[in-house]
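Attaching the record inline, Q. Sequence:
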Amino acid sequence: MSRLSYLVVLVLLVLPGCSTLHGSLGALTYPHLAGASTETVLVASSRRKSDQPSEFFSKGRSAHLNFAEVIVSIPPAHVPGQIEKASEHHDPKRHFTTAGRRYIAGRNHFLARLNQTIIANSRRSREVFVFVHGFNSTFAEGLFRAAQIRHDFDLPAAATVHYSWPSAGRPGLYAYDRDSANFARDGLVDLFELLARSRASKVFLVGHSMGGLVTMEALRQARLTGRTRIYRKLSTVALASPDIDVDVFRKQMQTLPAKRPHMVVLVSKDDRALRVSGILRGGHPRIGQGKNVSLLTELGITVVDLSSLGDGDKLSHSKFSSSPSFIEMIRRRRITDRTIRSADRRGRKPTDGVAVGDVILHLPR
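Structure, as predicted:
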C-alpha cells in the first residue's frame, strides 16, 4: 500500500464523516416534558429491524421496506443547528430523545398514517418533507437530523418522512456504505410510489452527502423504469454536500425529464469529508466541493455556496443543517424561491453569484 493510501485510511478512521453524533435512541421512551418540542417523523427504511430497543433499526440490509413512526423530543434549551446527544444516559431535559416509537405493519398502513398526518396539518400546507441521510449514520442519527431540520428551519410541511438506508454508522466502513447506497435506491423508488399515491400536494426532498447519491440514483431509476408519478409532486430537490462524482452527476441529470423539479445544490469549498472522498477516487472532485459551479448552472441548477459561513460543524460537511446563521437566514425567509428568481443578474457572469449575507447564490443559466 502506498504512503498516500495509508494516509487516506488513517484519515477515514478518525474522520467523523457525515455525522458528529454517535449514539442511539436510548432504551426508553419518555413522557412529554414541559418546555420540550416534539416532531413526529414517519420512517421508511431499507434497514433490517433490530432486537435492540436502543437501535430500533440496524445496519443490516432489508429485502423490503420497513416502516415506523417516531415522536422525537427536542430539549427545552436546544441550540439551533445542534443535536444534543447523550453519551450514556438519555435525559429529555438535555438531549434528543423519543417520546414514542412503533413499527408500522406494511406500506398500506404507512400510507394511511401519512395521509392522516397530512390531513391533520393541512391548514399550513400539504407538502411533505423527505430527508435522506448520508454516510456514517446510524438510524438514530438520521432520524434526529430529520427532526432537527424540520424544527430549526420551521419548515411549512404537513409531514416529515425520513428515508433511512443501511449505513453502517462507522467511518471505517465507507465501502460498505457505498454498496448500501446502491442497494437503497430501489427502496427510495418504492417510497416515491407511496408519496405519489398520498394526499400530499408537494414533496420537498433533501439528500445529504452519500444520501444525495441515493436520491439521484432513485430519481434516475424511477425515470428509466417508467415509475414517474413522483415527478408530478416533487417541488424541490436539494442536494446538500453531495458525495457524487462530477461525470456521474452529469449523466444522472441527463436522464431526468426536461420538466423536472427545482434543483438546488448546497456546496462548501472547505468540506473536509468530501476532500477525503475525492482523494479516495484518484482526485476526482465531488459535486459538493463547489469546484464545478458553471457546470451546475448550465444544467439549470441553483448553487448555494456556504463556504464563507463561519459557523457550523468542524468538517464543514453539514453546514446546511448545523450553521445557526444559515438557519436564521432561512427562518427569516432571506433565501427563498422568490429571492432566487428575482435576484438581479444583469451584467454578471453566472460564476459571479449573488451575495445574500455570507451565502453566495449561483443562478441557473
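The chain has one domain: 3-362. Confidence is low (pLDDT under 50) at residues 1-17.

More tomorrow.
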